[in-house]
Amino acid sequence: MATQFPDRQWGSRTHPISRLTSRFAATRVGSLVVRVLSPLDRRVLERTAGRYTALGPIGAPIIALTTTGRLSGQPRTTPLLYVHGGDVLYVIGSNFGQSHHPAWTANLLADPQAIVTITGERIPVRAEVLADPESKARIFGRFVEISEAYAAYRTRTTRDLRIFTLTRD
């Protein structure tokens, strides 16, 4: 059996503030606010080695995913919500429902080796696109359980939202 990924969730997704935040994030203005706050979250994650996140108190499970830039060759770190699957983590390229895929997904397609920072650990991982439609639908449903914003993102774009599995390398 593969080693389980750590999972540190603090806060509560069922708290009224968490539910309100999820509904706000589903709006276009809310998506913009979250995008603007992403660099702050990246700094918090980097400074705390993935122990804390700006969205943690509302129960948002967030990792820092470091990919290799496909054009620059430089490390690129992105804070992402994830779905915990024991020995696998799932991340989704929703890009807030924008018409184009987020850059980190293209980076993973070019080089599937990456690093996940979570609960004080930097873990080398290998990414693979989740292709099975049933599995994608099931995992997408788990993202919607985390934040209803994902359902809104799905309606804003016609592109296929890339879902990746991350396994220890």
From the structure above, extract its key features:
alpha+beta; Pnp Oxidase, Chain A; seven-stranded antiparallel β-sheet; 25% strand
Q: What value does the average pLDDT take?
A: 87
- Placed side by side, the strands forming the largest sheet appear as 2-1-5-6-7-4-3
Number of helices: 5
> Mind telling me the CATH class?
Mainly Beta
How is this fold's topology laid out?
Blueprint (H helix, E strand, L loop, with lengths): L15 H10 L2 H20 L14 E7 L6 E7 L1 E2 L3 E5 L10 H8 L2 E6 L2 E9 L3 H14 L2 H8 L6 E6 L1
Helix pairs in contact: 1-2
Kindly describe this structure.
With 169 residues, the protein is of the alpha+beta class. It has one domain (16-168): Electron Transport, Fmn-binding Protein, Chain A (Pnp Oxidase, Chain A), CATH 2.30.110.10. The chain is built from 5 helices and 7 strands; from the N terminus they run ααββββαββααβ. Strands 2-1-5-6-7-4-3 form a 7-stranded antiparallel beta sheet. Strand 1 and strand 2 (75-81) form a beta hairpin. It starts with 15 loop residues before the first helix and ends with a strand.
Short description:
Helix content is 36%, strand content 25%.
